[in-house]
Amino acid sequence: MRRAGSWATGIVAIAVSVVVFLVPFGFIFVTASKDASEASRLQFSWPTQWAFTENLTEVLTTRDGIVVRAFLNSTVLTVVSVAVMVVLAAMVGYLLQRRRSRLNPVVNFLVLAGLIVPPAVVPTIWVLQQTGLFKTMPGLILVEATFGLSFCILLFRAFVATIPRELDEAAIIDGAGPLRLFFAVILPLLRPVIITIVVVQAVNVFNDFTNPLYFLPGDENATVQLTLYNFQSQMVSQFNLLFMDILLITVPPLVMYIFFNRQIVAGMTSGAVKG
Amino acid sequence: MAEARPARRRRTAGSTSATQRSVYPSWFYLPAGVLYLVFFAVPTFASFWFSLTRWTLFDTEFIGLDNFIQFFAEPQLSQGFVNTLIYGFVTSAAKVVLGLALAVLLTSQLVGRGYLRSVVFFPVLVSTIGVGITFKALLDPFDGVVNTMLATLGIEGPGWFTDPNQALLTIAAVDVWKGLGIATLIYIAGIVAIPQEYYEAARVDGAGRWQQFRSITLPLVQPATATVIILSLIGGLRSFDLIWATTGGGPGFTSDVIGSVIYKQYQAGFYGLSTAGNVILFLVVTAIMVPVSLLLNRKEVDR
Prior knowledge:
Chain A is mainly α. Helices cover 78% and strands 0% of the residues of chain A.
């Protein structure tokens, strides 16, 4: 009796999930495979004529390969900003957990403020202009790294607590200085949480639209999300190309998800149990 | 998410405060601190000053609270304020209810559990702009897949993004579709952490499924609920990109939120007014988040 009930619920749930969650993705795929006139009818149907490769080459070569350049820009942005974020946040999280000082409550408060307070956009542009970083890739990299710090620090602080202090003491007795201790002993032990953070933040930065829109406008430095947004108005009658671009942009996070499923889930749900 | 761990007081050989200072040097805070100061703290404090000025990025003219008065006097600006509150509350309430329901379903003995978990989570990873464009096509009032299907059932589909009365709620629904996966996973982690013995004991005492849910699951997933509410409120109140990708705040100003007002005023060159929008958003977020997190954390301690 219970068995049959759970089968029925399961099948209903699968049916609903197909309609609600798979149809939109299927729609992206079939629209990206159609020719322009068929795609413009916006139907959820199998393409009568497959134009997948044609659409792919056309998207990649349109406007002197702006999509390819955008992919390069987004890759540089993601890799560098996540690397900066991870190293700096690990140092803070480590110190915050290890050393008891009067500074700790202040740092904890600043970390929480960084999570909650919405960044002030135009004043940030003003700061970037004063430092000559506005509309430059290094400027956006530093901004993205800064905005990601708080989340990373919280995860690092929690993870460092699981590393026994005796290890630090042993390393000190063996003659390691504070830098050696951190980079040669602690950092390698943080590997699991580093993987989680890298994957989660890489997806975040790669998918970010708002910060590039404000801090890195213009065509030559455009990121993938900006290019996609601009295509929306430039390709009004070419839904096939627009959706091909969506499909391309979805591939990197999809690959990440397939390989790092567990780490992504761990990172995004951290704090659920301990509160 | 405040620190609740009991402070470990350890007095072993190497942890007097003098050696602590050399082993764990304070300058480790410095690199992150500089970034935080320059790109976050300074702009945040500067925003309070610039919000009181007429500002062209080259010079500023102090005009007192005029920007704020204008913000609340002009309907197309104050509409954004109201919409932000509606959007934040609707999306986080929906994520709590649906996330919990799905998590209960996905932690029960169910066929295709693994598939369901992946499929619910996947939208979280897709770019917001991509999701926005896709749903604009799916929910097109004339040719869209959804309304075509409704038409075959003899129902006249609504205008979705193009209807002034529905645009904001339609975006909120898409937001829930995209963010539900996180809420569900947080709840699953919370439910899995509840010891099975509680349920067994309740079953022995003759508690039904609903009673088990009411008296065991619901109170014990409270930390997960707190996390979901806090995360989705922070996200919902700040939201900008999904709205910008779907309606751009339209039709008219009916789906504008503070985030989109900030961008529109910035584009129009009203930097002071845009920054005032930022300060208002800051005040809204703090005014909501501080009591909410205090309330949620206090309940936890009481238990």
